[in-house]
């Protein structure tokens, strides 16, 4: 099966991991700080904390922004469930902003309209989790302007978008947001197996996120609560000042990430080449065959996913056709508000029509740095054959 996404592991990655295994520290050694430094330098951002998943990074982002019971967080329905769950972990309510059918990211127009209504109802969100779907950045400047006007915090969920650019700068510089989170799951732009990171230019936010990711325990003098100290305390002394979590990344994972990060730009280039090749092949056939809506060909996307839209009655047929031909297509995503957990909170079919109609036709074709030319050709010809076969069916 040709997978839709896959990690690239070379001997240097293996050597980096083996090195850690042969050293003293499997965790809390030198590799995590080195990886954090490398990520912040790459993104041109002040602070980075590496954690054990993108989900953990989203959770500590919410905690560091003091999101809790009674608060409201908004995100897009076209994302992985973690973008919404992070607010629920903190006891906050969640709502969604429908997508723009062209960018597939949350719609700025819909966001502005929803904010206007929310202001009148006195129920503005405390934070917005904006997801750079498939590796293409949201319009962060526009979101930031709305954030300033209505006073909400901005978390960029860049799980798909390490190495992507917005306004010619790398995603993660946090120019227009409070913080950005990344995921390093194996299908993502680089991998640590499981892993994630939060980056920010805000030192207080960084400090809080770090505390929450490390049991709420600190040895930092400026944070220690003096009334709990005793003269008998020595260098071993630490305090737990919050109810934190163990979200630490291990040195084994960080070493893999550090090694992978050196190839990020090559990965993005290779993904772009695959996207351009698909785009060229599919554009050429779209006049005679059933309509195929392609993603925007943006040189700044990280091309984490390549998602085409088919007329909705063809999507399941296409999915089965590709899978039968050993092409591991996938679907990203079932709109989050339609998940049973969220329907039980009151969301229902019809709430976010653009997201729902996008989902009905979406199919993710394979794209990853090591997708070979014959594999790309196989995907292209399989799509061509499928569309030809259904066009006969449709015209019959
Ligand atoms: C948009 C988005 N946000 C968050 C996550 C969660 O990341 P992780 O799997 O590292 O917890 C994912 C992972 O699939 C994702 O795609």
From TrEMBL:
<dbReference type="InterPro" id="IPR020026">
    <property type="entry name" value="PseC"/>
</dbReference>
<dbReference type="InterPro" id="IPR015424">
    <property type="entry name" value="PyrdxlP-dep_Trfase"/>
</dbReference>
<dbReference type="InterPro" id="IPR015421">
    <property type="entry name" value="PyrdxlP-dep_Trfase_major"/>
</dbReference>
<dbReference type="GO" id="GO:0000271">
    <property type="term" value="P:polysaccharide biosynthetic process"/>
</dbReference>
<dbReference type="Pfam" id="PF01041">
    <property type="entry name" value="DegT_DnrJ_EryC1"/>
</dbReference>
<protein>
    <submittedName>
        <fullName>UDP-4-amino-4, 6-dideoxy-N-acetyl-beta-L-altrosamine transaminase</fullName>
    </submittedName>
</protein>
<dbReference type="GO" id="GO:0030170">
    <property type="term" value="F:pyridoxal phosphate binding"/>
</dbReference>
<feature type="active site" description="Proton acceptor">
    <location>
        <position position="188"/>
    </location>
</feature>
<comment type="similarity">
    <text>Belongs to the DegT/DnrJ/EryC1 family.</text>
</comment>
<dbReference type="GO" id="GO:0008483">
    <property type="term" value="F:transaminase activity"/>
</dbReference>
<dbReference type="InterPro" id="IPR000653">
    <property type="entry name" value="DegT/StrS_aminotransferase"/>
</dbReference>
<keyword id="KW-0663">Pyridoxal phosphate</keyword>
<feature type="modified residue" description="N6-(pyridoxal phosphate)lysine">
    <location>
        <position position="188"/>
    </location>
</feature>
<dbReference type="InterPro" id="IPR015422">
    <property type="entry name" value="PyrdxlP-dep_Trfase_small"/>
</dbReference>
């Amino acid at each position: 099966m040709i997978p839709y996404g896959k990690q690239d592991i070379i001997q240097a990655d293996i050597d980096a991991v083996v090195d850690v295994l042969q050293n003293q520290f499997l965790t809390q050694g030198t590799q995590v700080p080195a990886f954090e430094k490398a990520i912040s330098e790459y993104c041109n951002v002040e602070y980075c904390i590496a954690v054990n998943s993108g989900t953990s990074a989203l959770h500590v982002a919410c905690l560091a922004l003091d999101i809790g019971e009674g608060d409201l967080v908004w995100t897009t329905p076209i994302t992985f469930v973690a973008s919404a769950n992070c607010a629920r972990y903190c006891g906050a309510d969640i709502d969604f902003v429908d997508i723009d059918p062209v960018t597939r990211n949350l719609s700025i127009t819909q966001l502005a309209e929803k904010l206007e209504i929310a202001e009148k109802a006195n129920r503005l969100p405390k934070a917005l989790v904006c997801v750079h779907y498939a590796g293409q950045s949201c319009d962060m400047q526009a979101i930031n302007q709305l954030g300033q006007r209505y006073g909400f915090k901005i978390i960029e969920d860049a799980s798909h978008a390490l190495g992507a650019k917005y306004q010619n700068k790398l995603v993660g510089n946090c120019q227009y947001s409070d913080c950005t989170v990344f995921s390093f799951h194996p299908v993502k732009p680089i991998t640590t197996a499981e892993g994630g990171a939060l980056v920010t230019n805000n030192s207080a936010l960084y400090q809080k996120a770090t505390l929450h990711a490390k049991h709420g325990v600190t040895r930092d003098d400026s944070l220690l609560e003096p009334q709990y100290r005793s003269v008998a305390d020595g260098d071993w002394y630490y305090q737990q000042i919050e109810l934190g979590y163990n979200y630490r990344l291990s040195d084994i994972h960080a070493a893999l990430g550090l090694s992978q990060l050196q190839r990020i730009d090559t990965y993005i280039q290779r993904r772009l080449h695959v996207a351009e090749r698909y785009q060229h092949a599919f554009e050429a056939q779209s006049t005679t065959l059933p309509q195929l809506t392609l993603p925007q060909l943006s040189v700044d996307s990280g091309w984490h996913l390549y998602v085409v839209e088919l007329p909705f009655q063809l999507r399941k047929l296409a999915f089965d056709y590709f899978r039968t031909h050993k092409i591991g297509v996938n679907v990203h995503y079932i709109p989050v508000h339609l998940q049973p957990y969220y329907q039980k909170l009151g969301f229902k079919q019809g709430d976010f029509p653009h997201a729902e109609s996008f989902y009905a036709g979406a199919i993710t074709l394979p794209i990853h740095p090591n997708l070979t030319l014959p594999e790309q050709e196989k995907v292209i010809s399989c799509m061509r054959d499928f569309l030809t076969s259904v066009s006969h069916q449709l015209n019959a």
